[in-house]
Structure to design on (408 residues):
């Protein structure tokens, strides 16, 4: 009999993590529908996925914050009209966040460093930091009697990590940890390495390139730990990956594709900083040329507009050429609540990563490409083809499940 599944979120006090917890509690009470999630519907619900009622939350953050108001904001945006239910959810949520651990902000740049409080890990070696995160994961697993723990990176976007020889090979990476080569790792690297060493499937929902470096992916393959990233695909890039193939299907030549994004939450305030923004632009940038087979003039702009709070608006202008060279254009505006778009994806990813681990799979999970802006190890960027990869996987996993059930 399968026990509870633990979800350990890095950035556990952030908007997405809060929405994941509140959303799960509301789903359990039947107060809302699992809209935005794939795994609760056909054909995924026939897979042996962890039940939403058997998920325990934990995690870490680097800042203290007043969580009651954050929980209320999420509940106010929802369509839950049951005050008693909301109060119960809020209390359960506060209990969960009262248990979260302190994380590390190593090498994360000034924008993130400014968030930290004095109790965040400092002045210890890389090996000590890894040991501390592993200790947190072990304690979470033990205290909550969990069979498996999936780690999800939902922390603020770090500046990019410049990859070096020591990141390309596991042995070289271990040596760099032993040498305490502090410049070679960021907080996301410490978390990812600790999770994989602990045998915990790891999801990098952020663009932070320090997390799943090749050496850590090698370790995941070797130890049969499923991992996947980078950067959840929830808004402008989601639409791009659905829309760009249309121009190919009609042999229309895209001349320019300009994207303007404004957002107002804390993620937006971190992305104001050029180094952190560079990570995001990198993951958003590569899909057009892969889909179209050529690179039109294209730029992605991201601006912080505080009054928008968690709302995000993307305006994209696509200039294209058709028959007899006539120039035409298409524009779209996408408006959404960042965390409401992201949270159901996180729940799907957690359940699918846990299943992959139980199926004995390790290393990258290409079947999850449709959830990411820059899916690691996957060339395919077209949304429907990526979705087909997930459907094929579901069919296989369901067939092997039935086979297993017939055999036992
Ligand atoms: N919302 C979306 O649609 C979406 C889509 C794709 C990716 N993302 C990424 O997901 C991440 C989380 O988004 P959010 O809106 O919840 O952001 P947020 O700013 O609300 O939350 C981030 C949390 O991470 C914490 N944090 C920062 N550095 C940390 C560290 N080193 N260790 C532990 N905690 C740390 C912060 O204190 C904060 O509580 C961001 O990197 C964002 O770019 C969001």
């Amino acid at each position: 009999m399968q026990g509870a599944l633990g979800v350990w979120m890095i950035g556990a006090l952030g908007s997405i993590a809060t929405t994941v917890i509140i959303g799960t509690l509301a789903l359990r009470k039947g107060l809302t529908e699992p809209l935005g999630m794939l795994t609760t519907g056909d054909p995924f619900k026939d897979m042996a996925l962890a039940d939403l009622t058997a998920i325990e939350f934990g995690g870490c953050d680097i800042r203290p914050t007043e969580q009651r108001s954050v929980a209320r904001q999420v509940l106010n945006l929802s369509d839950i009209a049951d005050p008693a239910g909301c109060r119960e959810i809020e209390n359960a949520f506060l209990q969960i966040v009262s248990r979260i651990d302190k994380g590390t902000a190593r090498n994360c740049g000034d924008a993130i460093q400014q968030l930290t409080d004095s109790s965040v890990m400092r002045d210890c070696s890389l090996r000590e930091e890894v040991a501390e995160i592993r200790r947190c994961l072990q304690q979470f697993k033990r205290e909550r009697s969990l069979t498996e723990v999936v780690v999800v990176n939902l922390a603020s976007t770090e500046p990019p990590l410049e990859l070096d020889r020591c990141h390309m090979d596991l042995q070289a990476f271990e040596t760099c940890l032993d040498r305490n080569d502090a410049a070679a790792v960021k907080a996301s690297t410490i978390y990812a390495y600790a999770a994989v060493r602990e045998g915990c499937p790891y999801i990098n929902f952020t663009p932070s390139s320090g997390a799943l470096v090749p050496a850590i992916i090698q370790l995941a393959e070797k130890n049969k730990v499923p991992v996947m990233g980078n950067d959840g695909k929830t808004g402008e890039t989601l639409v791009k990956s659905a829309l760009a193939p249309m121009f190919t299907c009609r042999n229309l030549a895209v001349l320019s594709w300009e994207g303007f994004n404004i957002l107002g939450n804390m993620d937006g305030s971190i992305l104001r900083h050029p180094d952190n923004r560079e990570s995001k632009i990198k993951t958003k940038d590569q899909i057009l040329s892969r889909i179209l087979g050529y690179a039109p003039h294209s730029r992605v702009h991201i601006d912080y507009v505080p009054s928008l709070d968690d709302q995000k608006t993307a305006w994209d202008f696509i200039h294209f050429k058709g028959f007899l060279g006539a120039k035409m254009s298409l524009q779209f505006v996408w408006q959404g609540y960042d965390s409401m778009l992201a949270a159901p994806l996180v729940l799907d990813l957690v359940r699918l990563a846990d299943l992959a681990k139980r199926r004995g799979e390790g290393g990258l999970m290409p079947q999850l490409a449709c959830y990411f802006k820059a899916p690691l190890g996957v060339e395919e960027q077209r949304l429907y083809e990526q979705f087909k990869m997930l459907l094929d996987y579901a069919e296989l996993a369901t067939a092997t499940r039935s086979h297993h059930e017939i055999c036992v």
